[in-house]
Amino acid sequence: MRPLFVLIKCEMGRAYETAREAVDRIEEVSEIYSISGQYDLLGKFYLAPDQDPGLFVTETVQRLPGVKDTFTLITFNAFSGAGAAR
Q1: Which residues contact 69 (CB under 8 A, 6 or more apart)?
Q2: Which residues of 21-58 are buried (b: 16+ CB within 10 A; e: fewer)?
Q3: The sheet that has 67-74: what strands, in order across it?
Q4: Pair 47, 30: CB distance under 8 Å
Q5: What is this structure's pTM?
Q6: What digits encode the pLDDT tens for the residues 16-44?
Q7: N or C: which end of the chain has fewer CB within 10 A?
């Protein structure tokens, strides 16, 4: 499984509703965080190695009620407290 982070901009007043929908509907969700700034939510998802991130975002995340815009971050390595890549 590989992590995918998606910043989500929501329609005004719908961030918490959108977060609940994401957690209830999307099996790949790990966490959804409410955040401040240009985006309202940060979603962490785990995709199967053969799963297309572009299709996942456009067909799953962007279709959630209240989603206005997204920005996707694909990661390369994760570093633990000991500094080693996992």
Answers
A1: 8, 9, 39
A2: bbeeebebbeebeeeeeebbbbbbbebeeeeeeeebbe
A3: 29-34, 41-47, 2-10, 67-74
A4: no
A5: 0.91
A6: 999 999 999 999 999 999 999 999 999 99
A7: C
